[in-house]
Amino acid sequence: MGFFEKLKRGLTKTRDEFNNKMAAVFSIGRKIDEDFYEELEETLIQSDVGVQTSIDLVERLREREKAERIKDVETLRAALQDEITKILKGSAEGENKNRFRLKGGRLNVILVVGVNGAGKTTTIGKMANYYNYIGHKVLLAAADTFRAAAIEQLCTWGERAGVDVIRQSSGSDPGAVVFDACKAAVARGSNILIVDTAGRLQNKTNLMEELRKINRIIEREVPQAHVEVLLVLDAGTGQNAISQAKLFGEVVPLTGIILTKLDGTAKGGVVIGITNELDLPVKMIGVGEGIDDLREFVAEDFAAALFDKPQEDMAGDGTEDIANGSEAE
Ligand SMILES: Nc1nc2c(ncn2[C@@H]2O[C@H](COP(=O)(O)OP(=O)(O)O)[C@@H](O)[C@H]2O)c(=O)[nH]1
Ligand SMILES: [Mg+2]
């Protein structure tokens, strides 16, 4: 299957679902009244946008209807798409915060956090493969030391991607692994160090301690490094993803989100709620289990895809190959 085919398939469920629901609300010639706004709010909530964000969006539309003297639903629909794009871009001023950019001339540490099964290790494998492929010096750290299988899984991805993994035996201190990995990254002149972590939410205190410690070690050992803390969320968990994000945000300074498994769910609307309620940009999305199933998130395209009728070509699919991954400072 070609690249475009994969993209198209990746977002099909979310797109079709959102599309059908919106088509029902914004039916041609419909009057803009109280009933209309109520139905729109309900439909947004049903599309996993989240209660608060749905209310916010409807409020913004009411304001625009008045300010711009909007009389027809077609124009209002375009305004909704516009408001959703603004939310997804993470800024009303036009600057796009979504773009994931590496810093040139120094080490980039990417700390990957999230609950068990969210897709951390898989995503790290995809990222390692991509950055290695375009010529970066990538190193991985197996700091999910709780189960031997977790370490093995990362090593398997490392082999597939052609990237080394710093590891210790299972049960060892994750902080020690990160310490070793920081030293190794500096010694080898790596410019990207990606750290896999455990996500055992059952034991919140331990998890918090572990992540805080890892964060401290990175700050101490490689103070010159640019650090990104990316939270991996399974799109299929819908609104639950927002509470996970809040919890992790209390522990580590999150800089962005990677939303996985968009290929298997119709709940992609959750992206809007996450960005709005947490003020965190979605940086990348996972659209499959394969090594090249990771995409850069493009706000405008994603929003357009939600409103576009399914098309034969891939225009407005909401994704872009994660090209141009680096930027000099
Ligand atoms: N369909 C699909 N499956 C994914 C995606 N990302 C991860 N997975 C699957 O989700 C499961 C858990 O992933 P894993 O990386 O082990 O999660 P971790 O516990 O957070 O490290 C695995 O079976 C992965 O193949 C994705 O974007 N799409
Ligand atoms: Mg894992």
How far is it from the N-terminal to the C-terminal residue, by CA? 37 Å
The general outline is: elongated
Helix percentage range: 40-55%
Provide mean pLDDT, rounded.
87
CATH superfamily of the largest domain: P-loop containing nucleotide triphosphate hydrolases
Number of structural units classed as domains: 2
What does this structure look like?
With 329 residues, the chain is α/β, with parallel strands linked by helices. The protein folds into 2 domains: 3-89, Up-down Bundle (Four Helix Bundle (Hemerythrin (Met), subunit A)); 102-297, 3-Layer(aba) Sandwich (Rossmann fold), CATH 3.40.50. 49% of the residues lie in helices and 15% in strands. The chain has helices at 3-25, 34-46, 51-67, 73-89, 120-133, 148-161, 174-188, 204-221, 240-251, 270-278, 299-307, and strands at 102-103, 108-113, 138-142, 164-166, 192-196, 226-234, 256-260, 282-286, 294-297, 319-320, 326-327. The strands form 2 sheets. It has a 9-stranded mixed sheet, with helices on both faces. Strands 1-11 form a two-stranded parallel ribbon. Strand 8 (282-286) and strand 9 form a beta hairpin. The longest helix is centred in the first third of the chain and has 23 residues, at 3-25. Mean pLDDT is 87; it is low at 311-316 and 323-329. The site of guanosine-5'-diphosphate (GDP) has 19 residues, from helix 5.
